[in-house]
Amino acid sequence: MAYTPSSSHTSFLFSCLLTFASFHPHASSAFPFLTPLVFKLLSFTCAFSFALFLQAIFTRLSPLPCYLIDFCCTEAEGNVAVTEEVYTKFITKWRSVKESNLAFQEKVLLRSGIGNESYAPMTLLSKAEDVDLQDAREETENLISVAAKRLLQQVGIEAREIDIVVINCSLFNPTPSLSAFLVHALSMRSNVKTFNLAGMGCSAGLLSISLAKDLLKVHRNSYALVLSTENITSNTYFGNQERSMMVANALFRCGCAAILLTNKRSYRRRAKLQLLHCLRTHLGADEGAFNCVHHLQDNEGKPGVVLQPNLVEVAGSALRRNITKLAPSILPLDELIRVVLSMIGKKVFKSKDVKVYEPNFKRAIDHFCIHPGGRAVIDSIGKGLKLSSYDVEPGKMALNRFGNTSSSGIWYALAYCEAKGRLRKGDKVWQIALGSGFKCNSGVWRVLKNVERSECSECNPWLSSIDRYPPAASILQG
Q1: Engineered SS bond to 250: which of 29, 109, 454, 456, CB 3.0-4.6 Å?
Q2: Is there a single domain that holds both residue 148 and residue 54?
Q3: Which BP terms in the Gene Ontology apply to this protein (predicted)?
Q4: Residue 221 domain-assigned?
């Protein structure tokens, strides 16, 4: 079929002709039916329209950004602070608890680096083994609804404006799903796109961010609400046989983070952060890595999360592989050249004395938010990256104040940096998440504006306690 130019195409071609003709010294003679003044006005209008057209083409073809407008971490929300005394009373409520196992869990708690202000569900502490599905549901539904409502209220966006919802909770997966509950609780639109990630472990927070980022690439002018949490009520180990399952009892606590993302370019000056890189590493093909964190039952049929002794070693291996792929994207050129030259030197001379250069990541990253899974893991990562006590402070303080809140832990660490007034425009933040599978995920963000301490809202869980942290040098030094 023959091509017939539309009126819009004809108008555009005419404007292009006028635009280019206006640059010719005798251009007006080509249009004798136009007066010089009218010709100049039309030329200016067409040139301006052509510039707008080029800008629209450029905007359409350039990758969509991923801005973090704001985030919110829950604090107590009706839960109980787990002091050493509260934890001991909780364990003694168990039926047929052994004295040796009681002493073991108290020992793990004392060495964990967790203080007396982390939280656990009131129903769990009072009912212990008698908790049921409804108790577990109430714990998680309360956390995610409070976090989401508080965040949306803070940024001034209605729930019906949300286009994408991603929720991750590893060990609690009711029907209807948690994402369905949130749609119901906040009265969201019927065409909202919802996703519920389960079984992904403590690293799932950045997996959710990665999924939301990919969705924002194809759905223009959208808001994505991401929630990361874990359920404590339904996954506490009440057995006496497996001490590897008892470790998780002493480490895990209540927590939830809500993050609001968008690809709207108008938020360039209003958003807090922009996602630069999101990298995932999965060691599931390795037998030892796959089994180091497992949800199992003991011989009596009591479920619990097994944390194997090789966890720190596996975490280090996963981080090294993750860094190998991430480093070329974030390190300065001279650091990369040093690494390459040292690798060539080691290959040529084949000597044990020639070591591969370990890059200085502090030249590329200003703030490190390490997953607060345990003091040993944080120390291991800090040592491997040659970080100072100042650099690992956010992760250690998040662990001390809130415990291991699973996938939301890296957001409590970021909230610590924010409450301390550390985030300045242009800074780069590296979030490092580790979890079962075994997975290591990295998220690198650029700070888009200065975040002052006085600007912290109720969305920041450190608001009332930041001046008391760090409480003691011994906590940072391990």
Answers
A1: 109
A2: no
A3: fatty acid biosynthetic process
A4: yes
Mean pLDDT over each residue of the chain, to the nearest integer: 88
Three-class SS state of 23: coil
From the list 219, 277, 282, 294, the catalytic residue is 282
Handedness of CA 372, 413, 201, 82 (dihedral sign): positive
- Cα–Cα distance for residue pair 176/173, rounded to 1 Å: 9
3-class secondary structure, 232: coil
**28: pLDDT strictly greater than 70:** no
Task: Decide if 24 is catalytic.
Answer: no
Whether 77 is covered by a domain: the verdict is yes
Q: Picking from 239-243, 416-420, 454-458, which range would have the lowest pLDDT averaged per residue? A: 454-458
371 is catalytic: yes
Mean of the pLDDT values across residues 76-82?
83
Please confirm, yes or no, whether 294 is among the known catalytic residues.
Answer: no
Confidence at residue 92, expressed as pLDDT on a 0 to 100 scale: 84
Answer yes or no: is 428 within a domain. yes
Among 33, 61, 89, give the residue marking a domain's end.
Answer: 61
Catalytic residue among 249, 263, 292, 371: 371
Q: Is 292 a catalytic residue?
A: no
Which DSSP symbol is given to 401?
H
Residue 81, SS3 per DSSP: strand
* Helix and strand counts by DSSP (H, E) for the chain: 16, 13
Closest CA to 106 of 247, 203, 6, 226: 247
More confident: 388 or 339: 388
Q: Determine whether 9 is an active site residue.
A: no
Please give the residue range of the domain that contains residue 345.
Answer: 67-477
**Alpha-carbon gap, residue 460 to 450, rounded angstroms:** 16
Spell out the residues 6+ positions from residue 465 whose beta carbon is closer than 8 angstroms to its own: 117, 401
Q: How far apart are CA 209 and CA 197, in angstroms?
A: 11
Asked whether residue 256 is assigned to any structural domain, the reply reads yes
pLDDT tens figures, 366-388: 999 999 999 999 999 999 999 99
Across 459-471, average pLDDT: 92
Catalytic residue among 168, 231, 263, 404: 404
Sign of CA dihedral 285, 291, 295, 301: positive
